[in-house]
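Design review, sub-item: ligand-bound model
Attendees: FS, YL, KQ
YL presented the inputs for the adenosine-5'-triphosphate complex:
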Amino acid sequence: LAQLFRPLDLLGMVYRTIRQGLIDMEAMYQLIDTQAEVADAPDATVLRAPGGAVRFDHVRFGYDPEREILHDVSFEVPAGHTLAIVGPSGAGKSTIARILFRFYDIQSGQVTIDGQDIAEVTQASLRAAIGIVPQDMVLFNDTVGYNIGYGREGASQDEIEAAAKAASIHDFILSLPKGYDTRVGERGLKLSGGEKQRVAIARTLLKDPPLLVLDEATSALDSRTETEIQTVLRDISRKRTTLVVAHRLSTVVDAEEIIVLDQGRIVERGRHADLVRADGLYALMWNRQASERESLPGEAGIGDVF
Ligand code: ATP
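KQ shared the predicted structure:
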């Protein structure tokens, strides 16, 4: 009898993996009608990525083949490390994150996770390995508990609450009229940008992926919320391979490597202190932002300084 049920278990697992992938895509791209343009290879394997190490090797890409957006981009994020991508608006930062999800196929070069080419693994297994904290998450029209619990099928109430505590949103949820059963989303209670981001963090904590993509907020949260969220994000990224798409400088300072992207090219790379010392583009951004921080505390964004 057990033999008979094994294929059903497998089917259940496949279903859950696909669903998880769809949830994350939806969270990242907000609109589900932006359909994936890529297909699984006929002999696609399941990605096994315990470390989540990322490698972009001479990647060239354009949404339209006539207009190349990323020109020969190469970088590596070793397992457990944090890489931050900074640069002006339109430089290609979010494009790198979309390519990592294989939302688009690249024109040439290779992208690997733990040594496996992402074009040769199933998209469902790829997306199941990546957790994303987007800058503006779309919530489901359901309870706040459901929205967090979506991170992992079958999560218990205790696990959901533990994740909410770690994301510093538990006390806020308890203050709502129906606690975890309060309906949120378009037809329910509207949460603020900072609250939605914390729900996204709690959901990601439940999912517990080896690889994390943080899309930092462009819009300024109030500085206390921002500091709290940064503390939580720093904590969860410490134990995981993390790619930060940084619109602001806050998480960049601690990154093991920063790449400065300008018009689809890496123009500088290194740690914060080295880049400041190098006195190039990054130093210029940093100094300008420092002076803006003095005049407008908590308001300066990295894109504003170009
Ligand atoms: P920002 O800091 O403003 O978010 P970014 O560095 O993340 O900018 P991308 O969103 O990666 O920049 O965009 C890089 C370039 O690709 C831009 O010139 C943009 O116009 C173009 N682009 C982005 N998305 C698409 C798309 N779906 N189709 C065509 N071109 C696109």
